[in-house]
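User: Quick sanity check before I run a bigger batch. Here is a single chain. Can you write out its predicted 3D structure?
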Amino acid sequence: MLINEAGLVRAMKSAYKHGGYAVSNQGDMVSIYTENWYVQANRALLPRKVLATIVEHMGLIPEVDVPLSILKDEDPQLILKEVAADEMDHWRGGDRGEEVTMVPVIMQGFQIYQPPGGGACWGVPLYLVDMIERGPAEHISADVIDKDRLLWEADGEAVMITAVRKACSGRAKEWERAVWAALEGVDLHKEGA
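Assistant: Done. Predicted structure follows.
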């Protein structure tokens, strides 16, 4: 299993209160996503508590090919199929870059991922890493997609999370860029780094 049931439920409950999330039931596949993360799984692999959370938030499981947006204190809103398809294509598509793995470094609330041997450091918010089972999060490589998100895939499951690379971010402060650039100068996988 790639998806951590408790972590995904926490992320869904947080999204429910702050901006909402979308659910698309494609029959044998279910996609759940926000602007910061995307989870896709075969229906049979989707954890029961995740399905129960959807039912708790909207009263039912969405019908096949009827994508819905779910937000606290609002009725579920129908998303046009074309819009949902574009949003999911954005998440699932893009240029695959290098593979990165978790390193034993947390910086500014971000778990750091780096290619084996060193180089670019990608940060993923700690609370979103919890959507992935600990073993796969630590030991399965993630693909960098379009230089702004990481993708983990395994046997009918996929998790994508928006990632930051502050060493070259125009939004980061100068000191942040300097610190993150220094991290990129070290192979953080090595013991004693």
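The longest helix spans residues 5-17.

User: Great, the batch can go ahead then.
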